[in-house]
Amino acid sequence: MMPTIKDVAKLANVSIGTVSRYLNGYNVKEENKKKIELAIKELDFKFNPMAKGLRTNKTFSVGVLIPSITDIFCTQVIEGMQETFDKYNYSIIICDTRNKLENEIEKVKFLMAKRVDGIIIMPVSNNGEHIKLIQNSGMPVVLIDRLIENLSCDTIVCDNVNGAYEAVENIIRRGHRKIGIIAGPQNIYTAKERLEGYRRALNDYNIEINESFIVYSEYKKGAGYEAYERLLNLKDRPSAIFATNYETTLTGIIFFKNMGISIGEDISFFGYDQTELFQMLTPPLSVVVQPMNEIGKDAAELLVKRMNGDMSFFPLIKRLKTSIVVTDSIKNLIDTKIE
């Protein structure tokens, strides 16, 4: 005979209500939590969210829309989500929109037809009409990484302006005045903020902004090769380049290798997102580090909160701090020691 919640409660010496609260993702006393978990393990108790869903009209599933499943940023964010949703017994349906708005719109319709309990989206553009449709249906939705203008929606993002500012500031403090940037599409809020951080740093250090040093690229796999070519073919080319996302950083590494250009000697290079690959280079790469796992966890926690009917502080815009790693990929052009 299969063990029941009643059996778990009896073995753990707690009430059935306490076990139910634990299974449904609500906080219980730490002492009770440990006893319940031990009882579940000993009894080999299996919680069936689908059966519960028949009673509550819930599917205990959530939809996650990302621009690219191969993007290291996306996979790290999803890992954080999975860890949190597992805790609340939610399954995830992951949809790859391939960086296309029309795919994103279709996938939203697909997930709504599947009657998921909530959706997390990393938008591919500044268009939010289809997201308003989700909200109007009463289904909770949380955006990650990118805000959408004129849309009131819960969002978990990083502090893109200050992340970019700190990167450029550190390049400047090593004596560079000719700093190029691989900026992202300006219909993506994240890309706009990172370009703003670049401009603000140059302005604060009284460095004239050379518009030819600002080149744009898509934020997708393999993007940015032509942008690097444009910067390096300038008659008065930059001594340092700042790439503003993972994909364009990876393209930069490939471009410099193909051209026989030595990072840290022939060109100074500052990228985005910390990965093992970037730190295995010689020299290791200077990067802006985003708390990718934390983004996923926070988005999942917020969505669970909304799915449970708690709409306090809506719309909640949470900005997570970035950090930077500075290495010899930025050549020091001045003799004085950098503090």
Topology overview:
Layout: H1 5-12, H2 16-23, H3 30-43, H4 49-56, E1 61-66, H5 72-87, E2 91-96, H6 101-113, E3 118-121, H7 129-136, E4 141-144, E5 154-158, H8 160-172, E6 179-183, H9 189-204, E7 214-216, H10 225-232, E8 240-243, H11 246-259, E9 268-272, H12 276-280, E10 286-289, H13 292-307, E11 317-320, E12 323-325
What structural keywords apply?
single chain; 339 residues; alpha/beta; Rossmann fold; 6-stranded parallel beta sheet; 6-stranded mixed beta sheet
Number of distinct beta strands = 12
> For the largest beta sheet, what order do the strands appear in spatially?
2-1-3-4-5-11
Low-confidence stretches: none
**Range of helix content:** 40-55%
C-alpha end-to-end distance? 69 Å
Q: Any idea of the CATH class of the largest domain?
A: Alpha Beta
Mean pLDDT: 90
Keywords: DNA-binding, Repressor, Transcription, Transcription regulation
Organism: Thermoanaerobacter wiegelii Rt8.B1
Pfam families: LacI, Peripla_BP_1
Protein name: Transcriptional regulator, LacI family
Describe this structure in words.
The chain is α/β, with parallel strands linked by helices and 339 residues long. Helices cover 43% and strands 16% of the residues. The strands form two sheets. Strands 2-1-3-4-5-11 form a six-stranded parallel β-sheet, sandwiched between helices. Strand 3, helix 7 and strand 4 form a beta-alpha-beta unit. It starts with a helix and ends in a 14-residue tail after the last strand. The mean pLDDT is 90.
